[in-house]
Each structure stands twice: as C-alpha cells, then as structure tokens.
Automatic annotation (TrEMBL), chain A:
Natural source organism: Virgibacillus chiguensis
Name the UniProt record assigns to this protein: Polar amino acid transport system permease protein
Pfam families given in the database record: BPD_transp_1 (PF00528)
Membrane-crossing segments per the record: 20-42, 54-75, 87-103, 189-208
Membrane topology note: Multi-pass membrane protein
Chief location category: membrane
UniProtKB/TrEMBL annotation, chain B:
Coiled-coil region(s): none
GO biological process, one term: amino acid transport
Subcellular localization(s) per the UniProt record: Cell membrane
GO terms, molecular function: transmembrane transporter activity
Family per similarity comment: Belongs to the binding-protein-dependent transport system permease family.
Identification of the protein by name: Polar amino acid transport system permease protein
Membrane topology: Multi-pass membrane protein
Naturally occurring in which organism (per UniProt): Virgibacillus chiguensis
GO cellular component: ATP-binding cassette (ABC) transporter complex
Domain of life: Bacteria
InterPro entries given in the database record: AA_ABC_transptr_permease_3TM, ArtM/GltK/GlnP/TcyL/YhdX-like, Ectoine_EhuD, MetI-like, MetI-like_sf
Transmembrane segments: 20-43, 55-78, 84-103, 164-183, 189-211
Amino acid sequence: MVHINAIIEIFPDLAKGLTITITVLIGAAFFGYLFAFIAGLCRMSSNVFLRKFTGFYVEIFRGTSLIVQLFWLYYAIPMLFGIELGSNWWAGVIAIALNYGAYMSEIVRGSILAVANGQSEAATALNMSRFQRMRLVIFPQAIRMMLPEFGNYSIQMLKATSLVSLIGMEDILYHGNIIRSTNLSQAPTVYLLVLLFYFILALPLIFLTRKMEAFSKKGVASG
Amino acid sequence: MSNWSWEVVAEAFPKIIDGLGITLGLTLACYGFALAFGFIWLFMRKIPIRPLRWLITWVMEFIRSTPPLVQLFFIYFAWPMVPVIGFTLNGFTSAILGLGIHFSTYIAEVYRSGIEGVGKGQWEAAKSLNFSKRQKWTKIILPQAIPPTIPMLGNYFIIMFKEVPLASTIGVAGILHIANSYGAENWTYLEPLTIVAILFLALSYPSAIIINRLEKKWNRRFDKKEALTRSKGATA
C-alpha cells in the first residue's frame, strides 16, 4: 500500500511547501495575538464608540466561517474598494489573524476580568497609577491564564493555514494536491504524508501548550 | 463602493438560498455523527490494555491537530485508492465522515469533562448504597454529567456550522459553493460572498446568544461561579 520509494519521491516535493506554511503561521500568529490584545483591551475601554466598534468586529469574525472570510478578503475586497491586498500571502495572513484575533480577544478580556477585584483595589490603595496597576499587578496575573489558551489557538492557526492553498498559495497541501492530480493512485500516501507534516509541525505546539498549562497552574491556590 | 450592484444581489440571492438546505442538512448530519462517534472514543479510552489506550489517545491527538481540510481530501480523494478496504464516497458522505470524525475527538473531551465533573463522593455514594452499575449511571452519574455539557455541545454545533463550508472544496453544493460558482460564471465575487457571510452571521449569531443564555442559566442552577465553557474557537 505505502511504498517506501513513493515516500522518498513525494517527501521532497511536499517539503517545498513548508516555507509557506511556516511563514503564514508565524505571520498569522503575530498579527493574531496583536489584534487579540488590541481588541481585548479596547472592549474594556471607557470609550463607548471604541467598545462598540471592537464588539462589532469580534462578533462579525466569530459569527462567520474563516473560509468565507478568506475568500471575501481575497476576492471581494479588491472588487469593493479597487485595492489589492498586495499578495495572497497577506490575504491569508490577515484573514487568519483577524479571525483568531477575534476569538483570542475574548481570552484576553476574560483573563483580565478574572483577576480578583481585590488585586486591583490593593494596587489603588498603594497609590499606583492606572497604567502601573495594569502593568505591575493585573497583567502578570492575567497573562498566565491566557498562555495555555494561546497555545491551543496556535494549533488551531496551524490547521487554518491549510486553507491558504485554496487561494493559490503553494503550501504543503497545495503541493500534495499537485502530486495527487498527476498520480491518482498515490493519493493515500500523499495525504497521509501531508497529515504527518502538519502533525510534526503541531507537536512542538502541543508540548508547549502542556508546559504552559503546568506553568499557569503553578503556585496558584486551587484552580 | 462603486462596484456593488443590487441587481446582482437580487439575482444571486435566491440561488444561494437554495444551498442553505444542504448546508444545514450537512451540519446536522456531521454533528449527529460526531456526537455518536464521541461515545466510541470514550469507550475506546476505557479499554483495559495500556498500550492500546495510549495509541488511541495519540490517534485522537493526531486527528485533532491536523487540518480538517486535509482530512476531507484524504477521505474524498485517497480513500477510494486504498487497496482492499477502499471504496468511492460522494462529497456529502465524505464530509460527514471527515468533519464528523474530526469533531468527535472534541466532543469526546466534552463527554469526559462532564463525567469527570461529577464529584468523587457521588461515585462512592452509589457504591455504598449498593447500586448496580446500571442504576449508578442512570440514577446518579448521568443526570449530573449531562446538563453541564449541553452548552458546550451547543457551542460545537455552531462551530460545526461554520466549518461545513469546507465541504465546498469537495463539491458539496452548499451556500459557499454556489456563491463561488456564481462568482466564477459572472465575474463578480463581491455580492455572492457577502450574501454568504451575512447568512452565516444571521444564523450563528442568534444561536450563540441562545446558548450563552442557556449556559448562564445552567451555571446558576448548578451554582458554578466560573463559566464552564469559553466559547472555544473555530478549528478551520
């Protein structure tokens, strides 16, 4: 069924897609965390307009599918405004980042709100400024709650990068599809290898997430 | 905004609506399959052979951390080519299997969390009252394990709904597929894709609100201070 020769032949072809998959993942993760923090903090702002606007962004992107958002950014945005997003790399990265940024902004908000009220009161009692309170007291406690969730979402983002093959980016899946279309009988080997590639990429993220889970539980009284 | 045309909207809308039945039907079918298969994982993890249990845990991890899109392609394109056991599946069935199995690994965790959430004292009580295995499960464990999982399962239904358009890549004619082919024929993607996005939003947003209410209600009822679920993200 799975021939060693076939694997040796297919492997380097698939590996050509690694760069795209990894760069899209890194780009999406960077912007995704960035959007998450911006949106998460904006939703707790005292400015009504800012709060409503980010709320709108979060609900829109959580309410629709990533694949629809990706196609919309790639096909519809250039038609609507007559602008190009530059390249499909940017379309892919921005779509994934906006989608997961919206989900993760809820994590950011939830974690900050979950820090006990007494902490913030204590900081006020110590005459800390609003910024100091956030930076020195709330944030260090909130971030340890966020980390495991961020780890989980980084795995989700890795899975999401496979969608960029649909807008013509030459990632692992794209190369897999090419090989399959020229040699149909090799399809099982090809897709098993593609899955394996993604799994190997996911492994460090899985272990990192477990580490973070252990880290976030350490030294905290009863979870 | 000059490129927006209401005529295109009027023409494309009825066509896209036609696909809604397939999208919703596929969501239900995938979800039903995932719910059922989740139980199978639960039982397989109870097998009293350690290496086998270990293997199953890793198989679940593998399915969960690899893209469902590739899994769909595997079932649709590769499964018929697998010698001996392989056979051809149509797009719809492939999607049920692919998305169903993918999400069943998440659903199994929900079941597990529900069962593990039942306090140790409850199990001991069942034992000390000399309940049979059947009585223990139907009278004590399940009535306490099921309610807290309902909002989580509801969340996964919405997530499933948002993942179903992946099936358009293997030719299942749901709303996204119709919008894409309309776009390709008429050289306008803007309106059809916007209609699809609005349809998704119109269906998933109210359901999310309902589930949120339900969750709050359950939490109050079971005196849970913390929310049991954070609306877990999509899985792409």
